[in-house]
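Supplementary Methods, section 5.1.

A reviewer requested that the exact input to the structure prediction be made available. We therefore reproduce it here, unchanged from the version used in the analyses.
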Amino acid sequence: MPVASTVVFSFTPTRYIAALAIMLASVSGQVSAQTNAPASAPASSSASASASASATSTEELQSVEVKAIRDPAIMPYKVAYELMSKVRAASKDKVQILIRITSAKSHAPVPNLNIYLDGKNTHQQLEISATGFINVPLDQAAYADGAEFVTNQKKGSMEVNILLLPKLPQDVFKYADISESIEAAQLAIKELVPWYLRLFMPSVNGIGICYAEQNQTVLVKGNEEQHLPANSDATDPLKNKVHCARFAAKDAAKEKGNLIMPATGWQAIYM
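The structure derived from this sequence is encoded token-by-token as follows.
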């Protein structure tokens, strides 16, 4: 079976939102996951752009990962706030944004990392999980206060990875939910990536329901009951290998009433 690839938008936050460039990186899996197991962290954030591009096999599956390498101490919260707001509005809150900060050298979580949202009237420490995921609030008061991110780490010592995630019901959902989440991701990407750069990147045209263990199936109930095998390899946001049952946008659009009933421990990723 083909191995999925990660689509990375590499950008550096600047004072104003600029163009977003792309880099296609070949890896042994796919990213961007929502999980109904205990979450690594909630998330959101972001910025503007520019950077690099390379290619992967045209037969490989795709997913969406936005990767910014920049010191969070100088990433404008104004940019993050405006981008988060645009993505939420465009996707009708059917896409989640997950942000993870790691060491620029080791790509592992940064020990003893502290990040604050700081302004004249704003002094808020952000929650950081053990795996490096942070919760960046969409705080109108902090935005109006001109708050900025500050950190206890050296400038340039960290990298920021921002992932677009399907937002699906936790236990049972319909093909219609799959279809709406795919459409929402496509709209969100239009807010993140200029049209002339979207010409060079694969489209989001499916969602994978994924498990860490092999030999899993996903129960689908429609006119008849089916057990779809999770046999497409991918990677989760922590780069762990997972096995996915793939739901294509064209199929989801035809059978919107079908129920999807995944077993406990699933993750949803864009493909």
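The chain is about 20% helix and 30% strand. These observations are discussed further in the main text.
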